[in-house]
Structure formats: structure tokens, C-alpha cells
Design brief:
This protein has 75 residues and is of the alpha+beta class. 17% of the residues lie in helices and 32% in strands. The chain has one domain.
Amino acid sequence: MYTYKNFRTKRELKEAVAAYLAGTSTIAVTYYQPGPFGGNEKQEGTICCEGPHYPEPHRWYAECEVKNGRIVKVK
């Protein structure tokens, strides 16, 4: 899965999630499944994200916990 914002590094993703949870940012980190397999993304549980977006080569992968369609924890 990809995040809607094209994070260049996993660290940027972690910082954005932490800022949202701390209340210093009003922008939640959301995600989607590209291609013909999209539209049925989990709203609760664990997902895997990757980045940066295609066509660039992926440089990071992350296991993320999601609640209500928002990423709340990055491993």
C-alpha cells in the first residue's frame, strides 16, 4: 500500500504520524492500494506500506497499525 502523501523516507512517515497523534498536525496519514486491487483496504488492523511511490524504486517498507482508516503506529 502507499500513503496518500509520497513520503521519501520511513522516518518522514513516522514523524508525520507522531505529529498527528501529538496534535501538532491536523493532517492524518491515510493510505490506499494502487491499481486494480484498490478499494477494499483494511480500516482496522495491520497493513504494509512502501515508498516512495512508483515509478521510483521503493527504498523503504513499513508495517503499520491502522484505526478508522488512519495510520496510528509505524514499525
